[in-house]
Write a structure and sequence with these properties.
Elements lengths: L1 E6 L10 E6 L7 E10 L2 H8 L14 E9 L11 E5 L8 E5 L4 E2 L6 H21 L7 E4 L5 H12 L3 E6 L2 H8 L5 E4 L5 H8 L5 E6 L6 H6 L1 E9 L13 H5 L4 E3 L3 H4 L3 H16 L7 E6 L3 H9 L6 E5 L1
Helix pairs in contact: 2-3, 2-9
Length: 325
């Protein structure tokens, strides 16, 4: 059977994303075939396309999340059946009409959650879950700083952290993005192009600093992020959109207040089936309750994946981005 997919034959710019016909087989034992309703686009896809993160082999189909309908199952599969509405994250190869997925990576999407929403929220939403509920347990009285507040993870995390009772400070690159963040739970938003975020955070917190900084920007922000933490505060570095954090002297953590730094990734938090189910269920619960609203602000046809990547890298996107096969 032939399907349409985006293929990358060599790493490089967005022009390497090619819309092609490829052969697809039937699911083997432990696998399921999913017909996509929508596919999520994330910055990690850019990292694989450029070669910053290494794909298992070339050529490859990018994409780490999607949602759709199960159309076939292999031997021994019991957690999903034909006709189920499902979503997944962390199984590379989603930029396609259909694909085969390890069945134990699929989660059932509740009826209250739209499949297009699910496709655009699994990676970002479960990232927000592990950041706020596991890496550092945000609760009433916590003060946080979240960089890239108007990004896909930021808009989810702002709402969720506010629901948990935190004081939520964010950074954004324009007044338009700052207003968007304010509408999604952020109490204070700092425009890093017109203000020094370190000075503003100290001003907002009356010099006390924050309990935790969530930083997906990397090179441009990590030192300032350390400077706004309270004693024994935590820097959670979970991305590097401005470039990798360079090596630094661990003695700085002592000098700046016995600080903690961690570099987590979602896939280590959902490696076990029960962890995946719990993380997804927590996300589905807050979305179904209306506590967290998922904004799919950009939609492209699958064949236009190149444009989607160019817009993402050009910081022209906010919230979630999906491809429609």
């Amino acid at each position: 059977m032939t399907i349409n997919a985006i293929r990358v034959s060599q790493t490089g710019g967005a022009e390497e994303l090619k819309y092609q016909s490829v052969e697809i087989g039937e699911p083997e034992a432990g696998e399921a075939k999913v017909r996509h309703v929508a596919v999520g686009v994330n910055f990690i896809d850019v990292y694989f396309r450029t070669g910053l993160y290494k794909a298992e082999k070339l050529p490859f189909t990018p994409g780490n999340e999607g949602a759709g309908i199960v159309v076939a199952v292999g031997e021994g599969v019991t957690n999903v059946k034909i006709g189920d509405r499902v979503a997944y994250v962390g199984s590379p190869g989603s930029y396609a009409d259909e694909r085969i997925v390890p069945a134990d990576r699929l989660v059932i999407v509740p009826d209250e959650v739209d499949l297009k929403q699910a496709a655009g929220m699994m990676l970002k939403g479960m990232t927000a879950q592990y950041l706020l509920r596991q890496t550092f347990k945000v609760q009433a009285g916590t003060t946080i700083l979240f960089h890239a507040a108007a990004g896909g993870v930021g808009l989810i995390a702002g709402q969720w952290a506010k629901y948990l009772g935190a004081t939520v400070i964010g950074t954004a690159g324009s007044e338009e993005k700052a207003n968007l963040a304010r509408a999604h739970g952020f109490d204070h938003v700092i425009n890093y192009n017109t203000e020094n975020f370190v000075d503003r955070v100290k001003e907002i917190t009356n010099g006390a600093g924050v309990d935790v900084v969530y930083d997906s920007v990397g090179k441009d922000t990590y030192m300032g992020s350390l400077d706004v933490l309270k004693f024994r505060g935590m820097l959670v570095s979970f991305g590097q959109s401005s470039g990798s954090v360079p090596p630094f002297d661990l003695g700085l953590l002592s000098q700046k207040g016995s600080l903690f730094v961690t570099r987590p990734t979602l896939f280590h938090y959902i490696a076990k089936r029960e962890e995946l189910e719990q993380t997804a269920q927590d996300l589905f619960d807050v979305v179904a309750k209306g506590v967290v609203k998922i904004n799919i602000n950009q939609t492209y046809a699958l064949k236009d994946a190149r444009q989607a990547h160019e817009d993402l890298e050009g910081r022209k996107t906010t919230g979630g981005t999906i491809l429609i096969p």
